[in-house]
Amino acid sequence: MMNSTYSLSTGNIGMLISMPHNGQQIPQDIADTMLTSAKKIADTDWYMDKLYDFVHTMGVHTLTPNYSRYVIDLNRNSNSESLYAGADNTELCPTTAFDSSPLYLKDQQPSSQEVANRVKHYWQPYHQVLSDTLSQLKQQYGKVVLLDAHSILSRVPRFFEGKLPDFNFGTADGTSCNNSLLESVQSLNLFPYTSVCNGRFKGGYITRAYGDPSNNIHAIQLELSQATYMDEPSNHVNKEKAERVKVQLKNFVQCLVDYTKQ
User: Fold this and answer.
1) What are phi and psi of 10, to 5 degrees?
2) How far is it, in rounded angstroms, from Cα 248 to Cα 154?
3) 73-94, pLDDT tens digit by residue?
4) CA dihedral sign, ordered 57, 60, 66, 68
């Protein structure tokens, strides 16, 4: 299913992968208010759709946005509630990049009315189809696993010290999925990659809002270090690295698929 703001690829099992920061488009009227540097969309979760292209043969549904997180961050609450209290957070409609540089021309930051407009036209359609798809899958299969798939530079001083582990799993401190699923993920041998669960990234709005283990909807976020598949800090994919990490990504996704069938 295609929409002007997202693409939904349907599968045949009770699992959905959401990739909310994979989009790269910026509408012209918004781009006209932005600095040239912002139009490079440096903080994109690059190549998520390519990294996870193998999931279609596994029967997994996928949902991807067409528009950049610089337009609106689909992994934030539409009321702009902070994800990590006390930490540095980017806004629902970001005004700065991860390196703290401004995104907008002087006095061109989005007004509250503009933010509301973006919620209506970009945020709501994505979350409506996400909610509807999870409800459909729950009705059809009885159990659903939602993977919210992300990636980020391995070093972002604004958000964390030092170098990020390779695989960063988040389950909202164990509240977004059953412990048995988390234990299965933690038992995976991801060598040679490092991993952590509920570290700096515990799962964003999507993981927290849609994970409902008491209703058999289990959500988990993976924040993958871009050092595992890219030539940092550029946006160039390293094909050899990507093929290597895909081996472990497949093992991880297979673990989730197996859980849907238990």
Assistant:
1) -90, 150
2) 18
3) 999 999 866 654 545 567 899 9
4) negative
Give the three-state DSSP class for 251: helix
- Residue 86: what residue type? G
Model pLDDT for residues 180-215, shown as the tens digit of each residue: 999 999 999 999 999 999 998 999 999 999 999 999
pTM of this prediction? Answer: 0.95
**Architecture of the domain spanning 6-260:** 3-Layer(aba) Sandwich (3.40)
Kindly report whether the peptide bond that precedes residue 233 is cis, defined as omega within 30 degrees of 0.
yes
Q: Two tokens at 137?
A: 């899958």
Report helix, strand or coil for 102.
strand
**In the 3-class helix/strand/coil scheme, how is 110-167 assigned residue by residue?**
CCHHHHHHHHHHHHHHHHHHHHHHHHHHHHHHCCEEEEEEEEECCCCCCCCCCCCCCE
**Strand blocks (E) in the chain:** 6-9, 15-18, 61-65, 144-152, 167-170, 195-197, 217-225
Q: Phi/psi at 45 (nearest 5 deg)?
A: -80, 80
Specify the 3-state DSSP secondary structure of 21: coil
What the block records as the tokens of 75 is 């992994």
HSE-up of 197 (CA within 13 Å, CB side)? 17
Contact 126, 78 (CB under 8 A): no
Q: Cis before residue 192, ω within 30 degrees of 0?
A: yes
Task: Answer for the pair 217, 211: CB distance below 8 angstroms, yes or no.
Answer: yes
Q: What is the mean pLDDT of residues 93-105?
A: 96
β-sheet bridge partners, residue 8: 63
Counted residue by residue, the chain has a size of: 262
What are the residue boundaries of the structural domains of the chain, listed by start? 6-260
Per residue in 193-202, pLDDT tens? Answer: 999 999 989 9
